[in-house]
Amino acid sequence: MSVLQSIGSTPLIEIPSLSRETGCKILLKCEHLNPGGSIKDRAAKSMILKAISRGDLRPGMTIVEGTAGNTGIGLAIVGRSLGYEVLICMPNNQAKEKERLIEFYGAQLKLIAPCPFSDPNHFYHTARRFYEEQPEKFWWANQFENLDNHLAHFETTGPELWRQTNGEIDHLVSVAGSGGTLAGCSKFLKVKNPQLKVHLIDPDGSGLHHFFHHGEFKSSGSSITEGIGIMRAVANFKEAQIDEATTYHDQDLINLAWRLRKEDSIVLGSSGALNVLGAYELAKKSGPGKTIVTFSCDGGERSLSKLYNPEFLTSKGLKVPE
Fold first, then answer.
1. CA distance 251 to 224
2. String of b and e for 22-37 (b: at least 16 CB within 10 Å)?
3. Which of 51, 94, 151, 299 sits in a 20 to 30 Å window from 23, CA-based?
4. pTM of the entire structure?
5. Residue 91: which H helix or E strand, with range?
6. Could you read off the pLDDT of 249-300 as tens digits, one per residue?
7. Measuring CA to CA, which residue among 294, 238, 231 is closest to residue 14?
8. What is the pLDDT of residue 1?
9. Which of the pair, 220 or 62, is modelled with greater confidence?
10. How far apart are the C-alpha atoms of 176 and 200, rounded to whole Å?
């Protein structure tokens, strides 16, 4: 088996403490067990292989992308395994663990000072310029607008969930960044079961929750989560079939993440913790007997410097769970 073949087919596990408490079956798709440690390995594989098959990505070209980290790691693993150079543009306020992994897997890392999306120096626009100025040299993955991203989940993640649950899913819960996971899985699963409900979970500082309910982007506050939440409607997110959207504060996901680490030996990253929080609150609201599926987007080891760091939490005005 090759590295590419090892992407996907991740286990689906039950969260014992939360299932017992709520009477629902709360299931976690362990995407942190992909070779690059996150669900973004699937999108990276799909985007690269489909670009090669179309002739858009050719031998000798360099893959370039702007990312908060996990997509960069996935592109580095897939790209380098196929012989391509990889250049990742990333804001310099993300977890240091992600920076080290991108370089460790052989990609070149260009760190960018955080700035609004409207600023031409934003990491997304920086990556785009490499492609626009030298299209013969660079292939831009463009995970937000490249629909091969959501096809990765329509073709693999959604079918895996259907098989692993024997078609018994009542609710799908997911955060969104590019929206690829939410779009691909919701489209596949709703074909199989039109009654299934899809729930978007949004952190403070993102506008997707407000956009879903009111058709415009507004946000308040900020979040320690990374790689999720956005203030614009991108192509992959537009494909998502969402029934409900909810937003939660960082303190709630922190409390739950620390609880699961103690009670279930499940160590979640910040996005996964927000996912499980959404599933847990939904289970309490919906009543017992439901099957609720969500994602461990990446491993908790990538959140050691933030989510599980008392000094960092205190510096952000957040309480450290006992």
1. 10
2. bebbbbbbbbbbbbbb
3. 299
4. 0.96
5. strand 85-91
6. 999 999 999 999 999 999 999 999 999 999 999 999 999 999 999 999 999 9
7. 294
8. 87
9. 62
10. 7
Instruction: Say whether 293 sits in a helix, a strand or coil.
Output: strand
CB 203 within 8 A of CB 235: no
C-beta of residue 37 within 8 angstroms of C-beta of residue 72: no
Buried b / exposed e over 55-64, threshold 16 CB at 10 Å, is: eebeeebbbb
- Chain centre distance of CA 148: 15
pLDDT band at 220 (very low <50, low <70, confident <90, very high): confident
Q: How many CA atoms, within 13 angstroms, populate the side-chain half-sphere of residue 180?
A: 27
| Residue 69: pLDDT over 90 | no
H or E stretch at 66:
strand 62-66
CA distance 318 to 303: 15
DSSP 5: G
DSSP string, 208-277: HHHHHHHSS----S--S--S---SS--HHHHT---SEEEEE-HHHHHHHHHHHHHHT---B-HHHHHHHH
